[in-house]
Amino acid sequence: MSKKRVYEVAKDLGVENKVVIDALKKHNVEVKSHMSTVEDSQVSMIKQSLAGGAKQAQSEAPKATQQAPQKKVHEYRRNEDGERRGPKQDRNNRNDRNDRGDRNDRGEKRDRPFNRDGKNNGQRDHRNDRNDRGDNRSNQRNGQSRDGRRPEGRNDQRQDNRNGGNRPNNGGRFDRNNDRNHDRNNNRSNDRNNDRNNDRRNDGPRRERRLEIPQVDPALTVKTEGRDRQASREVDRQKENRRFESEHRNENRSERRNKKDKKGKKGERTQSLVSSALQKNKNKVKQRNEQHIKQKEEERRKAEAAIATSIELSGPLTVKELAEKMGREVSEIIKKLMMLGVMATINQEIDVETAMVLAEDFGVEVVEVEPEQDPTEIIEIEDSPESLQARPPVVTIMGHVDHGKTSLLDVIRSTNVTASEAGGITQHIGAYQVRYEGNKITFLDTPGHEAFTAMRLRGAQSTDIAVLVVAADDGVMPQTIEAINHAKSAEVPIIVAINKMDKPGANPDHVKQQLSEHGLLPEEWGGDTIMVPVSAKQRQGIEDLLETILLVAEVQELKANPNRKAQGIVIEAQLDKGRGPVCTVLVQKGSLRVGETILAGVAYGKVRAMTNERGEKVKVARPSMPVEILGLSDVPQAGEVIFAVDDNEARSIAEKRIEKQRITEMNAKTKVTLDDLFNQMQQGELKDLNIIIKGDVQGSVEALRQSLEGIKNPEVRINIIHSAVGAINESDVMLASASGAIIIGFNVRPDANVRKEAEKESVDLRTYRVIYDAINEIEAAMRGMLTPEFKEVILGRAEVRQVISTPKAIVAGSYVTEGKITNNSEIRLIRDGIVIHEGHIDSLRRFKDEVKEVATSFECGISLERYRDVKEGDVIEAYKMEEIAPEV
């Protein structure tokens, strides 16, 4: 037997699930919900029960329930608006909940206050029933009395959507959309409920024509009536939608019109103000745009006018200055320099040649003019001839190392200067003034080592007469030739002192012959060079030498003006721990007094004290007088020209020189030319040996620096990161630690704290008193940084007699023909004189034993590492690479 669910039975009968459930319960059939199942017999019983109920209801109220399915005759009426109304019978089928819609029978609901939408509160409380509109329609069509009210039927609902309620007298507005939706939902819900509950009817008078309706199947009647009602409701809904949309549009238009009317003149004034404000803003924006366009156009015209067709150059200038002269952007100049391979900044100085190349690229003509006066230079005063007075000659002792220069000066000064020099070599210039027969002679002692070339050059520039000391037993040496060249370049007369005449091997004629080859021809040979044989050790020929010096000075007529501001040259400078910067000065013109402000390079200050070569304090230093002065702000460079100037002028010029020096140093670091561009690129692969130099005097520091920088090597580059005068301090150690440098102290000693700090930071600190030792140790350090060099040493050769193949390797049965074969040597496999493989020996055996080496005339088995292509007749050559010490 088949079974059906309750909701399926209700659907077939066109009734609600509750009706079927109630009917089943009346017949004592227990069901829990609409999903419960029933038997076919029970279904038949329910159908008969519901059909019988329908017939009974039809007999009680045939006019209200029966309706023809297709051929039914309908009565149509016109309402007050002329609209066509549908049949009243479609709205007579209502359930038991329609009783509340009978407004005439239940007058108490008319007394309830109406809400804003024209509905009474009782209707709002029963929204879930959705029967409001259906009740009104049913009651209206059943001929309810109107008793002076508006009809409570369908026509009235289409006009005001109040569900049959009394029209409010206050004229309040209502929500048409809400009412329409509410009525529409009520129509659908109530119609469905009324169709399925035909067993309950509304009682009351009905105004309709009685028709004879044929008897039909109640189930079929229910289905047919449902379809008719659905079609009718759809037509009604479409009409209502069109009517409400039209009314809504009209209402919106009227509302907008009312709002405009309410605004009146005030709205017009507001609109006028807004329009005027917008117009003002537009005018302002337009004005700003026009001004911006004019400004840009003016800038463009100025830029075009500023582009020069020709410029004047008087000397080096910065990139910014060149851009301003040419009327170009600085970025354009820098870009062009980069294209030429020169990396420059905006404040970097470029020379005239580079500027001319740049100007030519931009199509600008360059006109060279005389350079303007350098603000860092001081104009020298020309002395009138009548103001000049005779001055003592300045004599420089020059010559090769250990040829007796200092010993000769020692004899002249009658003091033992040589004993105080480390290693017997003069480490810095000494300036001394001696008297001979009432005449003063100033002597400058220059070092003889080749490292002090710059010091000798400065000595030659500041001297009147050069005394060239040549050892009679050694003859002309490299430094002797160098001293000759310096003296000639300074156009200084040369007096040759042939020293060490007391030695057995002395040969003055040989010395004269060598000197004549370098342009110094003796007077006795027809030349103009005076040569005096002397012996400093035996004190021979000293007086002849002094007389010759005075004679040459008399011929030169050396004069100077003592009555003017002083001008001189810095012979030596050092930093004294207690006295500060100490400077040895040779006054050349004027007179220097204590308290005057002097300027020497970037150092300036007032002279606090002056002492002569004997340590005596002096107040005035005359021309050709060497003095030691105190009071400078910094240690000046040896060879700087010293001027006595005003205090403000000294300060201003010193500051300008410092700035110029800073720019020069910056340019020197970044200067790139097309010639050495590739070389500088390769320097990135070099190893750097960083060095910090500290010395007792400026001249010694410079000489040591030049000597170290002169050591050239393609793999190691010496980088002097700092050099200064003074003792080694903790800041030097920290700098060396940070940069990985070594510290070289020349004639200076670090204190205990500095040594502890150096040990803590693992800084290599070395001190020297002789320059030879410093240079030799630096060269040794450089050798340690060089890439090791190797040479090949042949150990032996073996001939392959038989090739033995094994699963693991190929063994070459060989016979050692020369030298020996070792198991750790490198090998070459040679076939027909051509090297076909280079590698290492994997295994060396004699019979079945592993051996370390096999000597000549012995057989052995050799297997090569990762190589198997071995044939009979091949030669195995064993060799090793030995490291050799590199040379700097």
Draw up the topology in text.
Blueprint: E1 3-5, H1 6-13, H2 17-26, E2 37-39, H3 40-60, H4 62-65, E3 77-78, E4 84-85, H5 121-125, H6 132-141, H7 154-160, H8 176-196, H9 218-306, E5 310-313, E6 317-318, H10 319-326, H11 330-339, E7 349-350, H12 352-361, E8 365-368, E9 389-390, E10 394-399, H13 405-413, E11 430-436, E12 439-445, H14 453-461, E13 465-471, H15 478-489, E14 494-499, H16 508-517, E15 530-533, H17 542-556, E16 559-560, E17 567-576, E18 580-589, E19 592-593, E20 597-600, E21 603-606, E22 609-611, E23 620-621, E24 626-630, E25 641-644, H18 647-670, H19 677-682, E26 687-695, H20 698-709, E27 716-725, H21 730-739, E28 742-746, H22 752-761, E29 765-768, H23 771-785, E30 789-805, E31 810-819, E32 821-822, E33 826-831, E34 834-846, E35 849-850, E36 853-854, E37 859-864, E38 875-884
Parallel strand pairs: 5-8, 10-12, 10-13, 13-14, 14-15, 26-27, 26-28, 28-29
Antiparallel strand pairs: 1-2, 3-4, 6-7, 9-16, 11-12, 17-18, 17-25, 18-24, 19-23, 20-21, 20-25, 22-24, 30-31, 30-38, 31-37, 32-36, 33-34, 33-38, 34-35, 34-37
Helix pairs in contact: 1-2, 6-8, 8-9, 10-11, 14-15, 21-22
